Amino acid sequence: MEAGALQQEDPVQDEEAEEQLGEIKLYRIRWLIISIFVLYAAVSSLQWVQYSIITNIIVKYYGVSSVAVDWTSMISMVTYPPLLLPASYMLDKMGLRFCALIGVTGTAIGTWIKMFSAQPDLFYVGFIGQTVVFVSQLFILSLPPKVASVWFGPNEVSTACSLGVFGTQLGTALSFIVSPLAVRNHDNLEDIGRELSHLFYGVGAVITPVVILVFIFFKAEPTLPPSIAQAKLRLNKSEFTNKEFLNSYKSLLTNKPFMVLMFAYGINIGVFAALGTMLNQFVLSYFANAEKDAGTIGLLQVVIGCLGVVVFGVILDKTKRYKEVNIVLYVMTILGIIAFMAALETYSKILVYISGCGLGFFQNAYYAAGLEFGVELSFPQPESSSSGVLISMSQICGTIFTLLLGKLLATVGAFWALSLMVGFLAIGILVTVFIPNILLRQKALGLTGEDKVFLPKNNDRRM
Questions:
Q1: CA-CA 20 to 30 A from 331: which of 61, 127, 324, 346?
Q2: Sign of the C-alpha dihedral, residues 66, 165, 441, 227?
Q3: In sequence order, what are the residues at sequence separation of 6 or more whose Cβ sits closer than 8 angstroms to the Cβ of residue 386?
Q4: What's 38's domain CATH number?
Q5: What is the pTM of this model?
């Protein structure tokens, strides 16, 4: 494995630190690792709204209710929280590479199952495949902070995490547009079935080479640590035990600042998940026969959001102002929802597109910034554990919000349904303001003055 130039850490590494922690290196292969992860995450999230973004067509073809179609997206929210603990256990015990292999293989199997579901009486087959794909996402969604910290230097870690999240967002963006482009609202059910079959086989063809790439190139960790923080963790690393694993989650769930963030994060990303699931129905309630517009709006939201993820990832690396960035993104998310509501009421597609892009830019950026803030508040607990807990809360909130939006859309209309989401977001920003600005990971990176402290054994974190 070829090593790149040494990362220059801030503060300066002195001789005593060199003796205690050993050599620190950045490997060029880290960029291949993160690139493979981006592909891996993208193909999985490509299937998130594969059905729900064309809800009206799926209802016609399979003869199922719109609620049943909503569940093809919500199944990801329902399966994640109860399976988080066993998935995290496997990650801590078996390592990053093992879980990446399990995740990508499961994603491929679920994708291949759906290839046999393009018949009007086989909706349940597609639902099974969708469930397998989303169970496999347990080994994707919470990994960006883990991959970033294990492979990247301290001045790259937030950017690398943002790139990992970018993979998920890229796949989500494509999921909004691929289905509407591939499957049209034909009068003839056979034509719909043929196009659904092409869609499922196309995604299956994409996932297969990604599986091969992960098996060949994806590594668990570099030979030498990329940062002082990782060197400390390796120095204090002990044998994996069930007790240490459970203590890690106990530490997270008794960490008051982290728990407050969990509540706020769950609301924000839960609203995003609910809006993505229901986007087709919201747009069609204002614009007839606008399936492609719904898909394009969703695509642009996430594509612009990917830019936001990267921009704010760089800002976090440069400024280390995690709380302040989270607050700004939260406020802009609320304003984005309000603008989207107003645009729908004007019946102007142009304004709906513009407001949707603005909302996507800030809400997607919050997805990564919130995970990074969680790592700071919970260090030295595993990044995958803190991210998993945050995402679990967002999935629970997403399920609740999706069901609420469906009910309210049918009874009081889109404006009041979205108004309720604004109310929830207002609560989220209020509690975010009260989160203590404690950056434990940043303190661990310091090796001068009062920050020159090595982690005790009982705060061990698995690699």
A1: 346
A2: positive
A3: 145, 252, 258, 371, 374, 375, 377, 378
A4: 1.20.1250.20
A5: 0.66
